[in-house]
Here is the input.
Amino acid sequence: MPVTTLKEQLRADLTAAMKARDELVKSTLRMTLAAIGVAEVAGTQARQLDDAEVMKIITKEAKKRAESAEAFTAGGREELAAQERAEGEVLARYLPAQLSDAELSELASAAVAEHAAQTGEQPGPRQMGQVMKRVSTAVAGRAEGGRVAAAVKALLLP
Here is the structure.
């Protein structure tokens, strides 16, 4: 039976990790599925998340692991930092490949040119919001928001 959603893929991989007695993958996927479950029941009504929403949760969880690893390294707790990095690597399997700086810059340049062509406005800091919206849509989770903003600022600010 083919796996149809990302959440089902996570569950199938959790089952495989349990059978293989892979504690790292098992605990990481359990925490991620718990975060997805919390998001599904948050708000006024329980609902099923689509793949894009599940991807956002996985991205957020991976980002938490990276930040924790930095904090542990700064605090001299290298064994805990290594654990967080390993969990981040498990989550990275489910994320789309990240864009290089050159690819991100190319997408930002295209969005600035497209915006200028559609509005007739000279590119500048006032167009930051509109251009960010276009680039964020094109990037679709393949680059962190801070990197996207830096690429757009580099083009719009003199």
